[in-house]
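Bug report

Summary: structure tokens for Spermidine/putrescine import ATP-binding protein PotA differ between web form and batch submission.
Environment: batch mode, default settings.
Steps: 1) Submit the sequence below via batch. 2) Compare with the web form result.

Sequence submitted:
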Amino acid sequence: MAQSTTVKETGITTDTVPDVELKKVFKIFGSGAVVQGVDLQIQKGELFSILGPSGCGKTTLLRLIAGFEEPSAGEVLIQGQTMTYVPAYRRPVNTVFQSYALFGHMSIFDNVAFGLKVRGLPKAEINDRVKDALRKVRLEVMGDRFPRQLSGGQQQRVALARALVNRPKVVLLDEPLGALDLKLRKEMQVELSNLQYDLGITFVMVTHDQEEALSISSRIAVMNQGQLEQVGTPSQVYNYPTTPFVAGFVGETNLFECKLVEQDGAFLELRSNSGLAIVVEKPSDWQLSKEAWVSVRPEKIKLSTEHPNQPYNTYRGVLNNVFYLGDHSQYIVDLLASENVPPVRVTLVRQNTLGDKVPPFDSQVYISWTPEDCLALAKPMPQPSLDLL
């Protein structure tokens, strides 16, 4: 019997053989490597997101899993079986595209049944499987309609039904909600998460939307310039980023480029290039580095009109602007760290309550945060050039 383990914070029971595994995968187009040495394991039953900016290689990575592209080097495995030279139509995966790619002249039933008809399955089996797939996405009464008669969210569910009807081991989703408006996208996030949980099928989703990835993923791989910067649960990636890129890309943060002044027990004393003295709780895996970045999330920063009498990380500044965002407001504060240096601009957020008094613009304010509420990130070493030939 195969051993199994539980992925921390997700509640997912995973077999020792991952549903998807990439081993030192490279993909070269022309003279450049779009995917550079990616190692990744995606476990059974995960809703796994590959998150990154445009051009980082995330869609290419999905296409390598799907079989639409072949790796220049490395290996792709699905449920322990190598997919080298296995064409896309023979892989146990199905892809849902952002454009949905529905046939406008076909009914919803025929759209979902199309792949089964191409495979030559018996008519009775096709009928049963299509009805079951439409039931799973709650469209069982719309089989005789056409795509133009459905909303964007309903068309997205048809695309999911068409993928599920083939009973794949893994469903691949390429920016599946990108074509929807904000309100509908949030509704579909809930539906997608619930559907994946009910089915227990592994979903691998590519997205550039940080909020989307954080809200519905069991784990996230953050990708940048063809490489994976960090893989972890949403909580790990947001609260404990391992690189300055992850800290800045996933959510909002204030980043300070610093030099180490002193290492004192459980704390690091640093000075930013703009002159701010910053005290940070020393990370458990900290290795002595003379240079570092300090990340402070906006929600960790306190704002007051009087000095908070806190010994560390307290600064005087001028309120530059306030943006009212409904349940919270975003404050922009300019700090004058030292003479002959431009002001340091810091962003913070506060929840709005009735009776809040907002200081006037250009008034003096104080901001502060504790050493435990900021994070020191060692500067990454430059990546060596890759000789792949």
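Above is the batch result. After comparison, the two runs are identical; trailing whitespace caused the diff. Helices lie at 58-66, 108-118, 123-136, 152-164, 182-199, 210-216, 234-239, 244-249. The chain is about 20% helix and 35% strand.
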